[in-house]
Amino acid sequence: MRVKHAAFVLSAPSWGALPAPTAPEVAFAGRSNVGKSSLLNALLGRKQLAKTSGTPGKTQALNYYAVNPNPQGHPDVFLVDLPGYGFAKVSKSQRARWQQLVGRYVTERAEQGTLRAVVQLIDARHPPTALDEELLAIMLESPAPHLIALTKADKLSSNQRQQAVAGLRKHFEPYGLELPTVLTSAEKKQGLGELWTWIDTVV
Ligand SMILES: Nc1nc2c(ncn2[C@@H]2O[C@H](COP(=O)(O)OP(=O)(O)O)[C@@H](O)[C@H]2O)c(=O)[nH]1
Ligand SMILES: [Mg+2]
């Protein structure tokens, strides 16, 4: 898919605020600061469409971005920025609310046929953290295909990059999980074509 135009559409703070299921959706999830806004901006070819490094997790909402909307606003696909996860100052009830909303979104929206894929971002520099694992468990409730995007790959040498991919494969092996993995860098615009190709196949 070639991005000719991208636009922010809406911010849904609750289940009832989600838009009518009219176009395929691909969701992006990751703990805060993993580089999610940066990667979305890179994918959409825009610098500041998704806000980077604000107060992490302040807005607990699903943000919708339309790719190539027609004059009626109908896009080829919506990229959906799921609320950040794993910021320090969050109450138990806020956390439970988050899990409920995101868990419901990834399962019901996929069962509906609207959510076509889930992209989970993990920092390429470190093995998955407990938070990454927790998020993975929620994402795997979705029947939609799952892809791991390793972020900030520009911070690694080519050797370390290969180790990161191999390390992830090994990490998930005991769970019987074989997840497609793409090395990305928002900074160096790396892995974007590969991600779009994969998105094309699910959309
Ligand atoms: N070197 C490098 N830094 C990145 C990259 N992507 C994001 N960052 C930095 O990581 C921090 C968090 O990025 P952001 O996109 O706001 O993360 P979010 O909280 O997951 O949305 C910012 O300081 C970014 O500049 C990348 O590809 N390479
Ligand atoms: Mg962000």
List the keywords:
seven-stranded mixed β-sheet, single chain, alpha/beta, 32% helix, binds magnesium ion, 203 residues, binds guanosine-5'-diphosphate
Quick structural overview:
32% of the residues lie in helices and 20% in strands. It is of the alpha/beta class and 203 residues long. The radius of gyration is 16 Å and the shape is globular.
Can you walk through the features of this model?
- The chain is α/β, with parallel strands linked by helices.
- The protein has one domain (6-202): 3-Layer(aba) Sandwich (Rossmann fold), CATH 3.40.50.
- It contains five helices and seven strands; from the N terminus they run E-E-H-E-E-H-E-H-E-H-E-H.
- It has helices at 36-44, 92-111, 130-139, 158-172, 192-202, and strands at 6-12, 25-29, 62-67, 77-81, 115-123, 146-151, 181-183.
- It has a seven-stranded mixed β-sheet, with helices on both faces.
- Strand 5, helix 3 (130-139) and strand 6 (146-151) form a beta-alpha-beta unit.
- It is globular.
- The protein starts with 5 loop residues before the first strand and ends with a helix.
- The structure holds guanosine-5'-diphosphate and magnesium ion (MG).
- The site of guanosine-5'-diphosphate (GDP) has 19 residues, from helix 1.
- Magnesium ion binds next to helix 1.
